[in-house]
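pasting for the record
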Amino acid sequence: MKSNYEKFRSVCSILEEHAFDKSKLIPILQATQEEYKYLPQEILAFISSALNISPAKVYGVATFYSHFSLTPKGKHIIRICDGTACHVKKSSTIIDALKKKLNLNGSETTTKDMLFTLETVACLGACGLAPAIVIDGKVYGQMTASKAVALIDNIC
């Protein structure tokens, strides 16, 4: 875990790279999320102050775009498509199998050990590969529940 000094030093570097330019809020938030895997509240407040932008505006941008997360994510991000093409080809069985494998209950999306985050998305843009999942940025198509679980087993 980073100390507060290290946390703010990292975000200061990001702000410096973007010349403290408030018009570059989105790239600043993207770089910040890349650094921390999510957007911590205290970092959002710091960015607001450093850029002389209202906290409401920074928070508004951070919550408007689905790419941003205000909650911590796991080391490995799994995105499973549940759009029309994937849903018709039984993506829900893959979702259920992954939730069971990762021991995620109810609305939980991140494992307790912070190793995995499972996100369901409306479309990955890989309809020809349906059902599709993305793990750490790599697309896997024509998935089945057993293939998806095997991919997770290979990571562990």
